[in-house]
Amino acid sequence: MPAIAPLPVTLTGRHVRLEPLSPDHLDDLFAAGGGDDEVWRWQGGPTPRTVQELGEKLTTLLAEARRGVYVPFAVIHLGSGRAIGWTTYLDVDVTDERLEIGWTWYGRAHWRSAVNTEAKLLLIGHAFEELGMGRVQLKTDHLNVRSQEAIARLGARREGVLRRHRRRPDGTWRDSVYFSLLAEEWPEAKSRLAARL
């Protein structure tokens, strides 16, 4: 089947629900990660110190979503019913059957929990199984070792590094480490991720 572009959709697991991001999530999101330098360290731009500053980031993301650049999701922790972060589909290319998962953050209280594993299980599964994608890619700053380890635990393969790829907010240059997972690799990766949950 030919690949199709992602649309806003709700994806539900045992620990998290991914639902279309909206301004209604702002207060929960700020409570989860607003003002936390460690949460925002690798996100680009300054740490949002107020609800208004996080609202500006959210508004920018939603404007890009309306232009078709991103498909953003709020990550809802089912135990609390509250939004604890966001994640997006981006760089979608239906012709070449690929997309990227990125601009992901979670409140620090949910690091090293089932949240990231299940969110990625839902997103990657949707990309391969419903959207017909052949490749899902993820990238991160070469200095963000925690993120690289988390991506590798998903079963994604490290492909290489784009040097001097992006300017950081402080003016230094980031190298971007790229990872990917292919459709034929997904069944084995899916089994491993499901077992980890």
Concise overview:
The protein has 6 helices and 8 strands; from the N terminus they run ββαααβββαβαββα. The chain is of the alpha+beta class.
Any descriptors?
197 residues; alpha+beta; Aminopeptidase; 8-stranded mixed β-sheet; 32% helix; globular
If you had to describe this structure to a student in words, what would you say it looks like?
- The protein contains six helices and eight strands.
- With 197 residues, the protein is an alpha+beta fold.
- It has an eight-stranded mixed beta sheet with strand order 1-2-3-4-5-6-8-7, sandwiched between helices.
- Strand 4 (82-93) and strand 5 form a beta hairpin.
- It is globular, with a radius of gyration of 16 Å.
- The mean pLDDT is 95.
**Strands of the biggest beta sheet: in what spatial order?**
1-2-3-4-5-6-8-7
Q: Specify the structural class.
A: alpha+beta
The tally of helices reads: 6
- Low-pLDDT segments: none
Termini Cα gap: 30 Å
Task: Write out the CATH superfamily name.
Answer: Gcn5-related N-acetyltransferase (GNAT)
